[in-house]
From TrEMBL:
Annotated stretches, region: Disordered: 502-544
Domain Major facilitator superfamily (MFS) profile: 26-500
Acidic residues composition-biased segments: 526-538
Keywords: Antibiotic resistance, Cell membrane, Membrane, Transmembrane, Transmembrane helix, Transport
Protein name per its UniProtKB record: MFS transporter
Pfam family, one: MFS_1
Membrane topology type: Multi-pass membrane protein
Localisation: Cell membrane
Annotated InterPro entries: EmrB-like (IPR004638), MFS (IPR011701), MFS_dom (IPR020846), MFS_trans_sf (IPR036259)
Length: 544
């Protein structure tokens, strides 16, 4: 047995000692990669004004810089997980982190908005190869009795990523390192990615599913086409004057989605390896949960972008001031998330998630009242109350939602269901970012007297008028978000009153697993093989 072999894989000489510290190095590597992805989701928003000044980017391009990442990630997430099952999770992780690092370099050195949008699409696609492997690698690297602690650490990383993204983006933009303005928010990924690649090759054990399904490339192409047909006209329509082809394209996306469903049914009958397991939607709680995940993604996509534009363009705040303003929100989300999972949901079940929707809507109403009352003179400290209320509401929803959705899903479909939940959330975020043109920028144009087809960012009104228009558009957008949360509250009645099992952590109430076993693959000079009877537990969902 090689001295470099990971700790918990089964070898021809017996199991590796549980005291081997190399598995913790592997954990640090994959957790760092997950953190890097989480930060890149939010770090861009805070640098939007700097991007506009430096590249002359339109608001439509800004939407694509944010939505493109989410769209590419959503479209490739299920495929990335499937590729890891077939060709090896370590291999796909290394390919993903390499692509993510290269795409970050292209983003950092982009010479125009077109190059930056294309690079963000590539970055999202690479993340879709990297992220699905993270918890799978954790599963095969750690024995069952240690995974609870490890997944707890992962939850902490998720919370840290939510807090760190806006703050890190604000600091890097405010410091204007080497005169690069916004570019360091992407270039900071280069040393992290290179270190992850080199260390990952040495310390991560290879693994794959012994009964991996085939790739559904036609399904991937169809669902990606349908999403592009829907989101591209939403994002570009305002700048182009809402042309007829845009409306036809959006209507046609529904037909492509319908064709996708028909093809998936055919694929299931043909070889049993569809991209989406449609039988899952026969489970009422799962279907309702997917609807909640999609609409909640829309809420997040709209709110975070318009919030940034409101603070930095409307109120003319610096990136650092805007980033620090969001700290109470992030802290409240993390605190409420831990409280809901550990104490509230086990006792009150579904009511906790519904209370979260109501609380978040209440925070939005408070924010609307304050924005209207104080206008351009509002201060950061006056935003603390609505942001904390909203953060508590969001934390009550995001942490237990996955378990609530999966609680009645058959164990053998837990992996597919988890991937579909995460993909749907990303699709919702991309859709929400696209809808910003309707709920925010249309209001801005109406407020400052521009036609709907005028180029974004070329306002000729006085700066004060532009700021007032952004404040009014922000208030209007929050009413839309609050309305969506009311819909989410109603749909949540279809979720089970109390979760019957805990799939995400890898066990049910009976302590039985439900996903295919892992199979580790030998590396050069290392005979690594996982015992097919060891720890047959389902893969946990990777919540974002």
């Amino acid at each position: 047995m090689s001295s470099q072999q990971p700790a918990v894989a089964e070898t021809t000489a017996g199991p590796v000692t549980a005291t081997d510290r190399r598995r913790w190095i592997a954990l640090a590597i994959v957790m760092t990669a997950a953190f890097m992805d989480l930060v890149d989701v939010t770090i861009v928003n805070i640098a939007i004004p700097s991007l506009q000044r430096d590249l002359g980017a339109s608001f439509g391009a800004i939407q694509w810089i944010t939505a493109g990442y989410a769209l590419a990630f959503a479209a490739g997430l299920i495929t990335g997980g499937r590729l890891g099952d077939i060709y090896g999770r370590k291999r796909l992780f290394l390919i993903g982190i390499t692509g993510f690092t290269l795409a970050s370099a292209l983003c950092g050195f982009a010479v125009g908005e077109e190059m930056l949008v294309a690079s963000r699409l590539l970055q999202g696609a690479a993340a879709a190869m990297m992220v699905p492997q993270v918890l799978s690698i954790v599963h095969v690297t750690f024995p069952a009795h240690e995974r609870g602690k490890v997944f707890g650490l992962f939850g902490a990383v998720v919370g840290l990523g939510a807090v760190s993204g806006p703050l890190l983006g604000a600091l890097l933009t405010q410091w204007n390192l080497f005169g690069l303005e916004w570019r360091p928010i992407f270039l900071i990924n280069l040393p992290v990615g290179i270190a992850g690649l080199l260390l990952g090759r040495k310390f991560i054990v290879e693994s794959r599913a012994p009964k991996a399904l085939r790739l559904d490339l036609v399904g991937v192409l169809m669902v990606t086409t349908a999403l592009l047909m829907l989101i591209y006209p939403l994002t570009r329509g305002r700048e182009l004057g809402w042309p007829l082809w845009g409306h036809l394209c959006m209507a046609g996306s529904l037909l492509v989605f319908a064709a996708f469903v028909a093809y998936e049914k055919h694929k299931t009958r043909k070889d049993g390896s569809p991209l989406v397991e449609l039988s899952l939607f026969k489970v009422k709680s799962f279907a309702a949960g997917i609807a909640v995940q999609l609409t909640f993604g829309v809420v997040m996509g709209i709110f975070f972008l318009v919030w940034t534009l409101y603070m930095q363009t409307g109120l003319d705040w610096s990136p650092l001031k805007a980033g620090l303003t969001g700290v109470p929100f992030s802290v409240a989300v993390s605190a409420a998330a831990g409280l809901s999972v550990q104490l509230l949901v086990p006792r009150f079940g579904r009511k906790v998630l519904q209370a979260g929707a109501v609380t978040m809507a209440a925070g939005l109403v408070i924010y609307i009242w304050e924005a209207d009352r104080y206008g351009m003179a509002i201060h950061s400290w006056q935003m603390i109350l609505p942001l904390v209320v909203m953060g508590v509401g969001m934390g009550l929803i995001v942490a237990p939602l996955t378990d609530a959705v999966l609680s009645e899903v058959p164990r053998q479909h837990a992996g597919s269901a988890s991937g579909l939940i995460n993909t749907t959330g990303q699709m919702g975020t991309a859709l929400g970012l696209g809808l910003v043109s309707l709920v925010f920028f249309s209001s801005v144009d109406a407020s400052i007297g521009e036609s709907a087809g005028a180029p974004a960012g070329e306002h000729t009104s006085a700066p004060g008028a532009v700021g007032t228009a952004f404040v009014e558009a922000f208030e209007s957008s929050l009413w839309w978000v609050a309305g969506v949360l009311v819909v989410i509250f109603v749909v949540m009645f279809a979720l089970p009153a109390k979760p019957k099992q805990h799939v995400e952590g890898g066990t049910t109430e009976e302590g039985q697993g439900g996903s295919p076993d892992f199979e580790t693959v030998p590396r050069a000079e290392e005979d690594v093989e996982q015992d097919p009877e060891q720890d047959p537990e389902p893969e946990p969902a990777l919540s974002r």
